[in-house]
Write a structure and sequence with these properties.
CATH topology of one domain: Rossmann fold
Largest sheet: 7 strands, parallel
Order of helices and strands: EHEHEHEHEHEHEHEHHHEEEHHHHHH
Radius of gyration: 20 Å
Distance between the termini: 38 Å
Shape: globular
Bound molecules: NADPH dihydro-nicotinamide-adenine-dinucleotide phosphate
Strand content: 5-15%
Strand order of the largest sheet: 4-3-2-1-5-6-7
Structural class: alpha/beta
CATH architecture of one domain: 3-Layer(aba) Sandwich
């Protein structure tokens, strides 16, 4: 079920905000924007997984009401660092969900992976405006997630630069006039590397994205292009178009962030320099706009924009993800869980780069996709797929 565009609400003078995953790449960029405009925002909750030092610094800098750390063993350090500040602290999975449930006008969903699903859903259920960076939760819970958004009257504003671009040029009033969505992709660090050398790719090489500075997991996903596969599934859920009307186009300069083609052959695009603070600012200020410190686009300096069709032999993840989307039901849940397991193990040095897609494909082959009938089933399928992927890793 694809989303329809939420109705803009009257913007409050001061927007109260919470940031899930504040210590990550998207989280830090979000706080950078907030810190530049303290008069526009009041910060409720910030959360992290283990990075108590940065979380405490952030909470002090923006005067957050509460700082929550998922890993309970880090709570003593967080408490110590925030002693005497009046900022509340909490730890654990339940506390993370409570942080999301705390009233705030706006919430950034920037936890990495499906660990973000439950807390993001909690904010959805209270009808918040959500800046959605955590694409894995949409991929994993698909139509359930979108149904919850619709029934709670929450607003989902995409933060992925591609989906932010589409969101800005998509005619939600007349989706039948959309011929296709063109998701652009940089092609990552291995677009031109000799295919037979890919088996020796190291985690350091995989996380060195040519255009974007991002967290480790999404950087590896960009290297395999699984990120584009996840974005394909995300786009299917966020915009009311069928899967076969979403194309992927490689555009190495990452200047055109995506496009929408209409029935009259008109193509609308959103452009900008590759700086996440632009799409984050769009989501943070929506339905208004706010200044962002991203470098301005100077096309005369760039001079040449290039495009090419994606190479599905080099990047098997693209077909794996499209097949999972077409299979429907729990297939994207399985894909996402297996990918998270494989990427984590690759980053730990336990498997090779080419094993990532192999593990994902084999997990999809072993775990039958079923129609998704409940959210509980999403969690169960996620667990099963992780177990199968782990057992494949052992072999
Ligand atoms: P990072 O790895 O940089 O940060 C992840 C954040 O989530 C950190 O705050 C981390 O805390 C926290 N976290 C990690 N695991 C858990 C857990 N189990 N429970 C609670 N919190 C957890 O990721 P990014 O910022 O790069 O990406 C975040 C999301 O945004 C991803 O879904 C990604 O796909 C998406 N995205 C990112 C973009 C980018 O530019 N980085 C662009 C578009 C989308 P700690 O620091 O303590 O580990």
């Amino acid at each position: 079920m694809a989303m329809t565009q939420p109705k803009p609400r009257v913007a409050a003078d001061v927007r109260s905000v919470s940031v899930l995953g504040s210590t990550g790449s998207v989280g830090c960029n979000t706080l950078d924007l907030i810190a530049r405009h303290p008069e526009k925002f009041s910060v409720k909750a910030l959360t992290a997984n283990r990075n108590a030092a940065l979380l405490a610094d952030q909470a002090k800098a923006v005067r957050a009401e509460i700082a929550v750390i998922a890993d309970e063993t880090m709570l003593p350090e967080l408490r110590e660092r925030l002693k005497g500040t009046g900022i509340k602290t909490a730890a654990g999975r339940r506390a993370l969900i409570e942080a999301a449930a705390r009233p705030s006008d706006w919430l950034m969903a920037a936890i990495v992976g499906s660990a973000g699903l439950e807390p993001t859903l909690e904010a959805v259920r209270r009808g918040a405006i959500i800046g959605l960076a955590n694409k894995e939760c949409v991929v994993s819970a698909g139509e359930f997630f979108c149904r919850e958004v619709a029934s709670a009257g929450a607003s989902l504003i995409p933060v992925d630069s591609e989906h932010s671009a589409i969101y800005q040029v998509f005619d939600f009033e007349r989706p039948d006039l959309v011929e296709r969505i063109i998701l652009t992709a940089s092609g990552g660090p291995f677009r031109t590397r000799a295919i037979d050398s890919l088996k020796s790719v190291t985690p350091e090489e995989a996380v060195a994205h040519p255009n974007w500075s991002m967290g480790a997991k999404i950087s590896v996903d960009s290297a395999t292009m699984m990120n584009k596969g996840l974005e394909l599934i995300e786009a299917f859920h966020l915009f009311p178009v069928p899967a076969d009307k979403i194309d992927i186009l490689v555009h190495p300069q990452s200047v055109i962030h995506s496009m929408v083609e209409y029935v009259d052959a008109s193509v609308l695009a959103q452009l900008g320099t590759p700086d996440m603070r632009t799409p984050i600012a769009y989501a943070l200020a929506w339905p208004e706009r706010m200044p962002a410190p991203s470098p301005k686009l100077r096309l005369e300096d760039i001079a040449t924009l290039t495009f090419e069709a994606p190479d599905t032999e080099r990047f098997p993840a693209l077909n794996i993800a499209r097949d999972a989307l077409n299979a429907g039901g729990s297939a994207p849940t399985i894909l996402n869980a297996a990918n998270e397991v494989a990427v984590r193990r690759f980053l730990e040095g336990g498997i090779g780069y080419l094993d990532i897609c192999r593990i994902v494909a084999e997990t999809l082959a072993k775990v039958p996709a079923e129609p998704l009938i409940s959210l509980a089933q999403v969690y169960d399928t996620d667990k099963t797929a992780r177990r199968v992927a782990e057992s494949l890793l052992k072999n």
